[in-house]
Design goal:
Layout lengths: L1 E4 L2 E6 L6 E6 L17 E7 L3 H10 L6 E7 L8 H13 L7 E6 L1 H13 L5 E6 L2 H7 L4 E6 L2 E8 L4 E5 L8 H18 L1 H15 L3 H21 L14 H11 L6 H18 L5 H13 L12 H8 L12 E6 L2 E5 L4 H10 L3
Parallel strand pairs: 3-10, 4-5, 4-6, 6-7, 7-10
Antiparallel strand pairs: 1-2, 2-3, 8-9, 11-12
Helix pairs in contact: 2-3, 4-5, 4-7, 5-6, 5-7, 5-9, 6-7, 8-9, 8-11, 9-10, 9-12, 11-12
The structure holds nicotinamide-adenine-dinucleotide (NAD) and magnesium ion.
Nicotinamide-adenine-dinucleotide binds next to α3 and α4.
EC number: 4.2.3.4
Organism: Vreelandella rituensis
Main location: cytoplasm
Length: 367
Amino acid sequence: MTQVVDAVRTLSVSLDERSYPIHIGPGLLGESRWLTPYLAGRQVMIVTNETVAPLYLERLKAGLSGELEVRELVLPDGEQYKSLEQVSRIWDALLEAGFNRRCTLIALGGGVIGDMVGYAAACYQRGVAFIQVPTTLLAQVDSSVGGKTGVNHPRGKNMIGAFWQPKAVLIDTATLATLPPRELSAGLAEVIKYGLIRDVAFLGWLEDKMAALRALDDEALVVAIERSCRLKAEIVAEDETEQGVRALLNLGHTFGHAIEAHQGYGNWLHGEAVGAGMAMAAELSRALGWLNEGDVARVQAIIESAGLPLEVPDNMNAEDFLSRMRLDKKNIDTRLRLVLLKSVGDACVFDATPSAMLHALLEDFPR
Ligand code: NAD
Ligand code: MG
């Protein structure tokens, strides 16, 4: 169900008593009515980072009205700070402030901040309220929806975490104005993914609107974010803890993770690696006879139009890919599980890819 109030669209993520709304619109940050109703009590801790704080912290605070005790904590910026050490700083600040179980944490920033603050909220006094205010496109369409929270461990990304749902997600599309274009493209990879795995009509709409999206047209952004959140929310509602259909959200990700890890995190953005990974998944789907050449060209065209790479790094051979792909969390036993396309707009999990076919793809894919 979608409701429209002014220019703001609201959809709801249905998870029984843990259901929550996602509000999407330009300029909603700073308007009290989108924030205040979701506070559990008077104690509020805003957590953000050094990049986002100077841009949006004051605007967010302007939207907090009433007799509140508001604290803020500004963490360093970067995936390398998505650590238990930084989460501990959040707990320290909460305890120093004497915050109780009715406090509310607000995550203002990209996926790194959202994942850490969600995890801090999941554990503080066995669980307190939190609100997501995602400010990257990736966080708006992906990481802020679904309740996965956590941090990295020196031995692996996202290895420590919990499922913990926010009380609300507030998406102000105007915050994307300051986002570096490369980060915008990385977020578009996940948007395209939703179309490819289960909404061919949305994919067609994206083909029309890609230029408007990259030019930050508010109307187009609101529609794209809403549809993406809705598709993710539907999948999450069907499969909250990833026993089945949620795996489809990993289209392009097994290949993509191999690229990210091999290149060193941060050199290729996650969304860039997923872009190339989706092109690889399309090619393998063609080799299996599911897609035709026109389908593959269509997939490539939309990835390229978002400003994402279609080629994989030339310093990676097939064995480099395979050794990384075997470590994927999604594998069962020793078989590689890949998300592939039955057709454009319809994905499936496949764990019987002939190894010669996979090897040929990895060897011959454009560098
Ligand atoms: P990020 O949080 O590192 O943000 C990217 C960069 O943009 C950072 O430098 C950040 O400070 C900056 N930034 C944020 N908002 C800005 C704005 N409005 N203007 C200018 N700069 C801004 O990265 P991300 O891509 O948002 O998120 C990636 C993280 O999300 C990863 O840690 C990943 O594991 C996680 N993730 C989680 C889920 C989930 O389901 N929980 C899903 C996908 C990704
Ligand atoms: Mg992803």
